[in-house]
Design goal:
about 725 residues, mainly beta, eight-stranded mixed sheet, 59 strands, about 5% helix, about 35% strand, globular
Length: about 725
């Protein structure tokens, strides 16, 4: 019997141990087996006899296959739990190289149409077994390569969960309710659904009915098919000793969400009255980390107050971000509740106002008209938020890196509560629990940082309505591939930076080899998650954009074509395997940190068209032993070669007019500096760091005294000697 809220499906790939090659083992003897490992249980574990269905769909080259009802590599294999999970017969990978998508669902059945698999929750869930029998879980893992390592598929609830609490109000005591005959029904609910096993979406079908929940002793609990119930029908019916109380409200039961409904039963002296209220949707700690809110009639703070809950007292980033001055900030450690009071109405949640705070929830007064950039950045315990109707503006990155955020409510919230959409711009995304997401068709632009830091997000579908993708829109996501629709006309900087698992781009702007996005000659992004060791940048690329190859861990050699004129900031930063690079004569400038922390880089040749070497360009390149600087470089930026500890000598050409601070600091092996300009270049503080005792700094003999007297050069006058170049 299934007793999980969430579970991880681990596919163990076990090869045989004969004397054939590894490829032959993978191709011929690599069986697929599974075990189930709980990630967050709400009661006990799986029981003997539980069954899970598994589909496996092979790729066609680099193109993912489509899940069908019968034409898959593995069709609805049944795994049964005894002492471990076992299929009825041995299952194998196709071969040693073909990737595959894995689909899992529980409980096992016999789908005839994987796009519309019928499933029903029990209308009578009063028995615990019937409640659990109404659960449905689904999961997908994309692009799995044949391997002996475990393949994990994390599943999620496709249904919703209603928790109904009965409380004593006026005219009742808790003792009276405890001894009363109570009957609870959840009304006007469709109990049937069709489930798309390819996408993991359950769609309510059929006629409405009543569901009898399971009485756990503390509250009543029912599995609900995701759907909306409007306020013109009753939601809950409660009978107390035969007397019926009913309540109607607008509510959307969301997939994978637990909705706490608290009912207060009152019988005042002037007659029997039922008082029903819906409190915040809180998520059981044994099931979810967070809460959801559906509370249109809930108390709101005064306009000079902000209410919050937090794991510790919240201190705003600065006190001048609210359009009013903070008078007091009180927080109760026992209840985790806090209130910030101001000397006037709060009109804004300003830039960075609550960044990195320990908020778990916040109630914003309806006097607020704007939420600033990075306002709630990295509030990693925040699980949901309601935007008041008064808000007209939400800044970029307002909710980025909020990894526990599961839902938005109120103004600008999307129909699935996962996004804030302002005038067609998707400004914010609630990522908790999601690995795949399809952006709503109403979105015309993906805003700055909209999906930034969604480390569990492996797949995003962009609709044809989208025309632009903002800066950092998908940075630090776990995307493995993405398709850019033809409707997109522009990208912001670093849209896909630090996507370390990205293996390919498809659609508009994708290069012929699907490794890059190239827009108007600018190489915006490289799929650093692929295992290429050598790469030739396509001809026609004129600029290598910011962070384009950032953390391309596997690259050992990159060939830059003569069409490139600019290498932007951090273009190859942290490419830790890159061993050498030649900057062609076509390049005129190298941006800051372009090759910083390329710790395997041993030699660099900078072409004769380069006029400036930016700040920190080669900083941290600890194995860089040979550098040739072109004859037209006029400036060497701050920290340009800082911590290049293997560099033994450097020649500074006649063209150089300035050397920034710490440019060659911490170059512990640098023994010989040949500085050709007859006029001392403008120096910077500690440009050579602390000089080694036997280091020599050579310059034209006629210029020795000028160098010794020049600002910053004078620091090294004991080591300066004339040289005939």
């Amino acid at each position: 019997m299934k007793k999980f809220s969430l579970f991880a499906l681990v596919v163990l790939l076990i090869g045989c141990t004969n004397d054939v090659s590894q490829d032959e083992q993978l191709a011929d003897r690599l069986p697929i087996k599974i075990s189930l490992e709980k990630s967050r249980a709400n009661d006990t574990a799986f029981e003997s006899g539980d069954q899970v269905g598994l589909y496996v769909v092979n790729y066609n080259g680099s193109t993912a296959g489509t899940l069908t009802s019968t034409e898959n590599h593995i069709n609805n294999a049944c795994f049964t739990l005894s002492t471990d999970w076992r299929a009825e017969e041995e299952l194998y990978w196709k071969d040693a190289s073909t990737k595959a998508d894995f689909y899992a669902y529980y409980p096992y059945g016999n789908p005839t149409d994987v796009s519309a698999y019928p499933f029903s929750v029990n209308t009578d869930q009063s028995a615990e077994a019937d409640y659990w029998a109404s659960d449905f879980l689904w999961g997908k893992r994309s692009g799995v390569a044949p391997t002996k390592s475990a393949v994990t598929i994390t599943t999620e609830h496709l249904l919703s969960n209603a928790l109904v609490y009965i409380n004593a109000g006026e005219g009742y005591t808790a003792e009276e309710l405890a001894t009363a005959n109570i009957e609870v029904k959840i009304c006007n609910i469709k109990n049937s659904a069709t489930i798309n096993l390819a996408t993991g979406v359950a769609t309510a079908t059929g006629s409405v009915t009543e569901i009898t929940p399971w009485n756990t002793g503390a509250y009543y609990r029912a599995m609900i098919v995701p759907q909306t119930v409007s306020s013109d029908t009753n939601l809950v019916s409660v009978k107390i000793n035969g007397k019926e109380y009913t309540f109607a409200t607008d509510i959307t039961f969301a997939a994978g969400t637990q909705h706490k409904i608290e009912v207060t039963i009152s019988a005042p002296s002037n007659g029997l009255v039922a008082s029903f209220s819906i409190k915040e949707w809180s998520l059981d700690d044994n099931i979810y980390n967070g809460e959801a809110i559906i509370n249109p009639g809930a108390p709101m703070p005064a306009n000079n107050e902000i209410w919050y809950t937090a794991t510790e007292k919240v201190e705003p980033y600065k006190n001048d971000r609210f359009g009013a001055n903070i008078v007091s900030n009180e927080w109760d450690e026992t209840t985790s509740k806090g209130v910030i009071t101001f000397d006037a109405n709060v009109t804004s949640i300003g830039d960075w106002a609550f960044s990195r705070c320990s908020l778990t929830s916040i109630t914003i007064p309806d006097s607020v008209t704007s939420i600033g950039v990075y306002a709630f950045y990295s509030c990693r315990s925040l699980t949901s938020i309601t935007i008041p109707d008064s808000v007209t503006e939400i800044g970029g990155c307002a909710f980025s890196e909020c990894s526990s955020l599961k839902a938005f409510y109120g103004k600008f919230a999307s129909a699935d509560n996962r996004c804030l959409i302002v005038d067609g711009v998707l400004t914010s995304f609630a990522p908790a629990g999601l690995t795949e997401y399809s952006i709503p068709g109403s979105v015309t632009s993906i805003g700055e940082c909209a999906f930034a830091g969604c480390i569990d997000l492996t797949s995003v579908t962009i609709p044809n309505s989208v025309t632009s993708i903002g800066s950092h829109a998908f940075s630090r996501c776990s995307l493995t591939s993405i398709t850019i629709p033809d409707s997109v006309t522009s990208f912001g900087n670093l849209a896909f930076s630090e996507c370390l698992y990205m293996t390919s781009f498809y659609g508009k702007f994708a290069s012929e080899d699907n490794c890059c996005l190239i827009v108007d000659g600018v190489l915006y992004s490289f799929a650093v998650g692929c295992d290429l060791t050598e790469y030739t940048i396509p001809n026609g690329v004129t600029e290598i954009g910011k962070n384009a190859f950032y953390s391309g861990y596997f690259l050992t050699n990159v060939t830059i074509p003569d069409s490139v004129t600019l290498i932007e900031n951090s273009a190859f930063r942290n490419c830790i395997s890159l061993t050498s690079v030649t900057i062609p004569d076509s390049v005129t400038a190298i941006g800051g940190s372009a090759f910083s922390k390329c710790r395997s880089l041993t030699s660099v040749t900078i072409g004769n068209s380069v006029t400036s070497i930016g700040d920190s360009v080669f900083s941290g390149c600890s194995n860089l032993a040979s550098v040739t600087i072109g004859n037209n470089v006029s400036s060497i930026g701050k920290n340009a070669f800082n911590s290049c500890s293997s560099l033994t000598s450097i020649t500074i050409p006649n063209s150089v007019a300035s050397i920034g601070g710490y440019a060659f600091a911490h170059c512990s092996s640098l023994m010989y500096v040949y500085c050709k300009p007859t006029t001392p270049p403008k120096g910077g503080s500690s440009m050579f760091g602390s000089n080694a005792s036997d280091r020599k700094i050579y310059m034209p003999s006629v210029s020795v005294e000028a160098y010794k007297a020049a600002e910053y050069w004078s620091t090294y006058k004991s080591y300066i000697e004339g040289y005939d170049f």
